[in-house]
Amino acid sequence: MTETVTAGLAAPHSTSTNSCTKVVGDWTALIPGDFVTVLESYTVPYTGWIDDVTEDGTIIWLVLAAGRGRRMFFRHDGDLITVEVPHAGS
Question: Among residues 11, 10, 83, 8, which one has the least CA distance to residue 45?
């Protein structure tokens, strides 16, 4: 299930069946420490923690999981950000 989220909802990455993946529609809702997956060009996944977000939400910096460094992503490049969120009632 994929839906758009406009609030800063992010949970630690899990494979629990009590969660679903949602697309973050408003990058300004992201806050440092949120664990997300960025789909670069809709194909290449990068997982990690939000390090910073510009005030207008056009750029994020992600500290990549597995010690792979820090990376900048641009909303105008068409990258998607997804988060794992618990199902309602979980």
Answer: 83
